[in-house]
Amino acid sequence: MISIQKAVIPVAGLGTRFLPMTKAQPKEMLPLVDKPVIQYVVEEASRSGLSKMILVTSEGKHSIENHFSRFPQLEEILMRKNKTEDLNQLNWIQSLGEFIFVTQPQPLGLGHAVLCAEKAVGNEFFALLLGDDIFDPKEDALQALIDAYISSGKSVVGVQEVPHDHVERYGIVNSPDNKKNMSWCVNTIVEKPSPNETLSRWAAVGRYILSPAIFKLLQETRPGVGGEIQVTDALSRLADQGELIACPIPAKRFDTGNKVDYVKASIEFALKHPEIGSEISQYLKNFKT
Ligand code: UTP
Description:
CATH superfamily: Spore Coat Polysaccharide Biosynthesis Protein SpsA, Chain A
Structural class: alpha/beta
Mean pLDDT: 94
Number of helices: 11
CATH topology: Spore Coat Polysaccharide Biosynthesis Protein SpsA, Chain A
Low-confidence stretches: none
CATH class: Alpha Beta
Largest sheet: 10 strands, mixed
Order of helices and strands: EEEHEHHHEHHEEHEEEEEHHEEHH
Helix content: 25-40%
Strand content: 15-25%
Number of domains: 1
Distance between the termini: 57 Å
Bound molecules: uridine 5'-triphosphate
C-alpha cells in the first residue's frame, strides 16, 4: 500500500452562512490573526506528508489561487528592504507543496466539487479536507485518518461527537458497537438527519481518506439534501460494501464557516500567537461590556 500523496480541498462553495462578508471574498480567506483559514488546512495536509494540494475553486475565487502562487514583485521589494522574516513567510507558503487548481463551474455540492478533482487525483487513494474546517494545529487531525487507512486499506471518515440537537448539520455515522476512540467499520452514514431519526451523535467533520472508487459512485449520485450532490450519499454506498471506516479525531475543531466558531477560533488563535498573545490576553482580562 502506498502512502497518501494528494489532498483535495474544495473551496468553491457560496458561503451563504457568512453573507454579506462572502459576497466578494471566499470564507476560506477569512483571517485568523495573520493567516487565512485555508492556509491552516494546507499546513495540516503538509504536516502529514502530503505533497500535492488540489484546490477546487470557483471562477470568482482568484484570491485563493493568488495566495498560494508566487508574487515575484513583492518578493523583490522585501528582499531589497531586507525584510527577511516577511520573505520567509512567503517562501513558507510555497514550501507547503505543489498547488494544482481545478474549477467547479457551479456550486452543485461538495460531492460534485470532489468529482471535479477526478482527473487531478487519478487512480489512487487521496485525502479530502474541507476548506473551512480547521483543527488545533498542535494535534495532527489528518494523521489519525492516515494511520486508520494504513491499517485497514479502506476509505476513512473522520468523526467527532456533536450535541444531539446539532446532528442535522452533519453527515452522521452509526455509533461504534464497543469502546469509544477506536476506529470502527461504518454500517450507515446519513446526511443531515433530524435528531429524532438517529441516536448516534458521531458526525463527519471535514476530513476523509477516500478510495478512487468514490468517483464512479459520485457520478451515479443524484442530488440529495438541499438539492446538492452529497459526498455522504456516495460514502453510504461504500459503507454498504463494508469499505468505510470511521476514525475519531482527537483534536479541537472549529467550523469557521459558522460565525460563532469563527470568532472563537479568532480569539483562541490570537491568544496563542507568539507576537500578540500576551497583549490580547491582557486586553481580555480587563474587558468589560
Ligand atoms: P459548506 O456546505 O460548508 O460550504 O461546504 P458552503 O456551501 O459554501 O456554505 P454555506 O452553507 O452556503 O454557508 C464545505 C466545503 O465545501 C466547499 C465549500 O467551499 C467548503 O469549503 N464546497 C461546497 C464546494 O467546493 N462546492 C460546493 O458546491 C459546495
